[in-house]
C-alpha cells in the first residue's frame, strides 16, 4: 500500500518544513555572526584611557573595532566623539608625529591628542580627514583618542597609523639644495622642518618655526626673481649660518617676487619659511631671471607744433622692483636729454623717432620709442569789417578775413553779437581756407539785420571766432576778433 502513490503524504508540508529548517539555520548563522562580531569588538581592550595601547616607537600601526566601544563619563574630546579607543604615546626621542586614521563602517573619524593626562590639559584636534600632526617631546605621555566624529554614526573598524615626520633633506643651512641655472623649480612640504639655533630670522614681523634652504651660484652675474606659493623667502650672503648677511625678504603671497642680484661665482642662500609665520605645509618655489624693465613715456601736447615746448614724462617701471637709475632720451632731430621729465621744442614740422632708454640699478635695460608727428596749424582772423552805423530792420554785411600760410584747412567761422552777460551766436559757416603766401585773406561774409534790442541799447558789438576743423590751432590767440561798436538807431 505504501507503494500505491503519494496520496497518503501531505505535499504542502514539505516546503513548509524546508522553510522552517532554513529559517532555523539562518537564525543560527546570524547569532553566530553577532557573537563573532561582539567577540571581535570585545578584543578592543583599549576602550578606556586607563587601558590605552602603548606606543613606544615609530612607525606604529594598529587596527581596532570600535563598534561596541564606549565613552567614559569625563572623557571629553573634539566633537565630542563617540565609540572611542585610546593610545598612549611615549617616545624615547623627540619627533614630529603624523597620525592618520582610516575607518570602515563610518566616514568621519575623530582624532584628538592630549599632551598629558586628559582631561586635565587642552586637547589638540585633528582634521576632518582623520589626520593630525604634532611635535612630541621625549619621555612625555601623549594620549591619542580615536572615535566617530558625529553621535549618529556607528562605530566600525579603524586603522591607526603613526609615523615620524622626517625633516626635509635641506632642513639645515649646511644641506642647502644647490642649483646653478635658472629657471629652477622645486617644492615639497615644510611640515617636519626645523629651525637651527643660530639660524637668522629673515622676517621683521614674525619668528619662523620651520625653514628649508637653497643655494644659487651662477656662472655669470644674474638678477633673479624668486616666487612661489605657501611661503616667504629671505635671501642671504655668507658662508656660515651664524654669520649671514641678509639681502632681502618677501612675503610671496602678495604676488610680488623677491629680486636679488648675484655676482658671477658668488652664492646667494634662499631661506624658505611658511608664509605669515604659519606652521608649514606644502609649498612651491620658482626662481627665474628677472624680466627686463618696461620702458614707456608720454608727451604733452600729443599733437605738437613748432611753437610748442613739449613735455616728456617717463612712465617706465620694473616688474622686478629694482630702482631705475638712468633715463636717456633722443628726440630724432639730433638733440638728446637725460632724466625723468625733459622738455623739447622741434624746429620744423615732420615725423620724429623719439626714444627713451632706461637702466635699472642691476644693469638691465629697456627702450621705448614713439613716432612724434609735428605739424603746425595756424589760421588767424586778420580783419573783422562791420558797418559804422545801422538801423532797425536794415541788413548790413559783416566780413571776416582769414589768413593761413601753412596747410589748407577747413575752418568753422562763427559770428556773435554782444548781449547782457556775454555774446550770442548770430551766424555760423564752414569754409575752405587755402594756404597762401604772401598772406592774402579769405573773406567770409555774414548778413545781419539790426534788431530793436540793438536800438534799445544804441549799439551792437560783433565778435568772430575761427576754429580749425579736426586740428589744434597752434596760436589760438588770433582766432578771435571783436569789432568796433556799430551805432544802431530805430
Summary, kept brief:
The chain has 490 residues and is mainly beta. Helices cover 7% and strands 45% of the residues.
Relevant terms:
490 residues, mainly beta, Jelly Rolls, 5 domains, five-stranded mixed sheet, 35 strands, 45% strand, disordered N terminus
SSE diagram, text form:
Layout lengths: L12 H30 L10 E3 L4 E6 L16 E8 L5 E10 L4 E6 L9 E2 L5 E6 L5 E7 L8 E8 L12 E3 L4 E6 L22 E5 L5 E8 L1 E7 L7 E7 L6 E5 L5 E7 L7 E8 L7 E4 L9 E5 L9 E7 L5 E3 L4 E2 L5 E11 L4 E10 L4 E7 L3 E3 L3 E10 L4 E11 L2 E12 L8 E8 L2 H6 L1 E2 L1 E7 L11 E3 L3 E4 L1
Parallel strand pairs: 1-3, 10-12, 27-35
Antiparallel strand pairs: 2-9, 3-8, 4-7, 4-9, 5-6, 5-8, 11-18, 12-17, 13-16, 13-18, 14-15, 14-17, 19-20, 20-23, 21-22, 21-24, 24-25, 26-28, 28-31, 29-30, 29-33, 32-35, 33-34
Describe this entry's structure for a reader.
- Helix content is 7%, strand content 45%.
- The chain has a five-stranded mixed β-sheet with strand order 1-3-8-5-6, with no helix packed on it. The protein has a five-stranded mixed β-sheet with strand order 10-12-17-14-15, with no helix packed on it.
- The chain has 490 residues and is mainly β.
- The protein has two helices and 35 strands.
- The protein folds into five domains: 39 residues; 116 residues, Sandwich (Jelly Rolls); 117 residues, Jelly Rolls (Sandwich); 78 residues, Immunoglobulin-like (Sandwich), CATH 2.60.40; 111 residues, Immunoglobulin-like (Sandwich).
- The N terminus is likely disordered.
Amino acid at each position: 500500500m505504501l507503494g500505491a502513490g503519494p496520496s497518503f503524504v501531505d505535499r504542502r508540508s514539505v516546503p513548509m518544513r524546508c522553510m522552517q529548517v532554513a529559517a532555523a539555520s539562518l537564525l543560527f548563522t546570524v547569532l553566530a555572526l553577532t557573537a563573532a562580531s561582539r567577540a571581535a569588538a570585545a578584543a578592543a581592550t583599549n576602550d578606556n584611557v586607563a587601558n590605552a595601547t602603548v606606543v613606544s616607537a615609530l612607525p606604529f600601526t594598529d587596527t581596532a573595532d570600535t563598534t561596541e566601544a564606549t565613552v567614559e563619563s569625563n572623557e571629553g574630546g573634539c566633537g565630542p566623539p563617540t565609540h572611542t579607543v585610546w593610545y598612549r604615546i611615549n617616545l624615547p626621542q623627540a619627533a614630529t608625529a603624523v597620525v592618520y586614521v582610516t575607518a570602515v563602517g563610518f566616514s568621519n573619524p575623530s582624532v584628538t591628542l592630549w599632551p598629558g593626562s586628559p582631561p586635565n590639559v587642552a586637547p589638540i584636534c585633528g582634521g576632518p580627514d582623520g589626520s593630525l600632526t604634532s611635535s612630541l617631546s621625549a619621555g612625555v605621555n601623549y594620549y591619542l583618542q580615536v572615535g566617530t566624529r558625529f553621535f549618529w554614526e556607528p562605530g566600525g573598524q579603524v586603522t591607526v597609523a603613526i609615523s615620524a615626520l622626517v625633516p626635509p633633506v635641506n632642513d639645515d643651512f649646511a644641506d642647502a639644495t644647490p642649483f646653478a641655472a635658472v629657471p629652477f623649480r622645486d617644492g615639497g612640504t615644510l611640515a617636519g622642518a626645523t629651525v637651527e639655533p643660530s639660524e637668522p630670522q629673515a622676517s621683521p614681523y614674525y619668528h619662523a618655526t620651520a625653514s628649508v634652504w637653497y643655494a644659487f651660484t651662477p656662472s655669470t652675474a644674474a638678477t633673479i626673481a624668486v616666487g612661489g606659493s605657501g611661503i616667504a623667502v629671505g635671501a642671504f650672503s655668507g658662508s656660515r649660518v651664524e654669520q649671514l648677511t641678509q639681502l632681502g625678504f618677501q612675503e610671496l603671497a602678495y604676488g610680488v617676487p623677491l629680486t636679488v642680484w648675484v655676482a658671477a661665482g658668488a652664492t646667494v642662500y634662499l631661506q624658505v619659511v611658511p608664509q605669515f609665520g604659519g606652521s608649514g605645509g606644502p609649498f612651491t618655489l620658482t626662481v627665474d631671471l628677472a624680466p627686463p624693465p618696461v620702458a614707456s613715456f608720454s608727451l604733452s601736447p600729443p599733437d605738437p607744433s613748432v611753437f610748442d615746448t613739449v613735455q616728456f614724462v617717463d612712465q617706465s617701471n620694473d616688474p622686478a622692483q629694482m630702482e631705475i637709475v638712468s633715463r636717456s632720451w633722443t628726440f630724432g632731430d639730433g638733440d638728446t636729454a637725460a632724466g625723468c621729465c625733459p622738455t623739447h621744442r622741434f624746429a620744423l614740422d615732420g615725423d620724429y623717432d623719439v626714444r627713451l632708454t632706461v637702466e635699472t640699478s642691476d644693469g638691465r635695460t629697456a627702450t621705448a620709442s614713439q613716432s612724434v608727428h609735428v605739424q603746425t596749424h595756424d589760421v588767424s582772423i586778420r580783419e573783422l569789417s562791420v558797418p559804422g552805423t545801422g538801423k532797425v530792420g536794415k541788413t548790413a554785411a559783416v566780413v571776416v578775413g582769414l589768413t593761413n600760410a601753412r596747410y589748407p584747412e577747413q575752418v568753422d567761422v562763427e559770428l556773435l553779437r554782444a548781449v547782457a552777460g556775454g555774446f550770442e551766436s548770430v551766424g555760423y559757416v564752414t569754409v575752405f581756407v587755402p594756404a597762401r603766401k604772401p598772406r592774402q585773406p579769405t573773406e567770409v561774409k555774414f548778413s545781419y539785420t539790426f534788431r530793436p534790442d540793438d536800438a534799445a541799447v544804441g549799439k551792437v558789438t560783433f565778435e568772430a571766432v575761427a576754429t580749425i576743423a579736426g586740428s589744434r590751432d597752434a596760436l589760438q590767440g588770433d582766432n578771435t576778433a571783436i569789432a568796433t561798436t556799430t551805432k544802431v538807431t530805430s
